């Protein structure tokens, strides 16, 4: 399974198509160019998964009982907004209008590698979030949102 890394600035064309950077296309080519685009439930961006990676996420979501309000909300939003797309001969995908609207995507965008998936951001929203993260006082936030145990020993 491919891991997505890095940040790429790009543009959506007038029809809402996005050219997937060449360095990421192989991950989708392994699955006949099939992928899933859905919303992020925490930020106004889109998540792009290789089809098989998405199927695993969807299985995990589906296994959670929907009697839990948060689990139901997650399923409604993530699975409900999930759209299948296929790379065309030029390596582009069409981002549906409803998903573009959710993420505020018009033209200038940023594709951010996040391991098993890509995130697609409106360029202005991405720059704002990046600056916010860079200017955050981590000490104040750590009290409210402690680092997950799995990351406590991470050495960079």
Structural write-up:
By secondary structure, the chain is α+β, with helices and mostly antiparallel strands. It is built from six helices and eight strands, in the order E-E-H-E-E-H-H-E-E-H-E-E-H-H. It has a six-stranded antiparallel β-sheet with strand order 1-7-8-4-3-5. The chain is globular, with a radius of gyration of 17 Å.
Task: Give the SSE map.
Elements: E1 7-11, E2 17-19, H1 22-29, E3 34-39, E4 46-50, H2 51-63, H3 69-81, E5 83-86, E6 92-94, H4 97-103, E7 108-113, E8 118-122, H5 123-135, H6 138-144
Antiparallel strand pairs: 1-7, 2-6, 3-4, 3-5, 4-8, 7-8
Please tell me what the overall shape is: globular
SS elements, strand count: 8
Helical proportion? 25-40%
Structural class: alpha+beta
Largest sheet: 6 strands, antiparallel
End-to-end separation in angstroms reads 23 Å
pLDDT < 50 runs, ≥5 residues? none
Strand content: 15-25%
Q: Spell the H/E element sequence.
A: EEHEEHHEEHEEHH
Q: What is the overall pLDDT average?
A: 89
Radius of gyration: 17 Å
């Amino acid at each position: 399974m491919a891991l997505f890394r890095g940040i790429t600035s790009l543009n959506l064309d007038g029809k809402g198509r996005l050219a997937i950077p060449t360095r990421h296309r192989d991950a989708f080519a392994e699955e006949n160019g099939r992928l899933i685009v859905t919303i992020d439930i925490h930020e106004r961006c889109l998540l792009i998964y290789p089809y098989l990676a998405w199927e695993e996420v969807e299985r995990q979501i589906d296994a959670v009982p929907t009697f839990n309000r948060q689990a139901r909300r997650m399923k409604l939003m993530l699975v409900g907004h999930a759209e299948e797309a296929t790379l065309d001969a030029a390596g582009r995908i069409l981002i549906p209008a409803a998903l573009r609207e959710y993420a505020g995507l018009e033209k200038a965008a940023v594709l951010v590698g996040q391991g098993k998936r890509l995130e697609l951001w409106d360029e202005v929203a991405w720059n704002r979030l990046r600056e916010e993260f860079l200017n955050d006082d981590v000490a104040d936030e750590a009290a409210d949102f402690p680092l997950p145990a799995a990351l406590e020993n991470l050495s960079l």
